[in-house]
Amino acid sequence: MLPRKFYFDDVIDSLFESEKFEMKCDISEKDNNYIVEMDLPGYKKEDIKIECNKGNLIITCEKKKEEKDETKKYIRRERSYGKYSRSFYLGDIDQDSINASFENGTLTIIIPKIDEEKNKKYIDID
């Protein structure tokens, strides 16, 4: 039997584990609102940007690399740094009434929907 840790562990682990940071989220509907809940552990509110453009919701977060400390010798580094973005098309939404909060690593965005019947325009035929 081979011991659990052997020379190629890092190589094998990297084949099966994704090194890409995933912005995992849930989108639900309640009381004529879309609710987006996204996990962003390790980020600060200042690192997150939310943009809404013609029914598209774009969430971007960026974590800058820490300054090098020459006295540290890393045995393993798994935390990722960089800029990440997700976008969702939500359709007819009230862009002026969107609310967002960030607590305990979870971003929550409440997006009011526009009533489709009120937003419809019927065209008369001549």
Structure description:
It is a single chain. The chain starts with 8 loop residues before the first helix and ends in a 7-residue tail after the last helix. The chain has a domain of 80 residues: Sandwich (Immunoglobulin-like), CATH 2.60.40. The chain is mostly beta strands. The protein has 2 helices and 7 strands.
Q: Report the β-strand fraction as a percent range.
A: 35-45%
Silhouette: elongated
Can you give the mean pLDDT? Answer: 82
Order of strands, main sheet, comes to: 1-2-7-6
CATH class term of one domain:
Mainly Beta
Number of strands: 7
String of helices and strands: HEEEEEEEH
In the predicted model, the low-confidence regions spanning at least 5 consecutive residues are: 14-19
Structural class: mainly beta
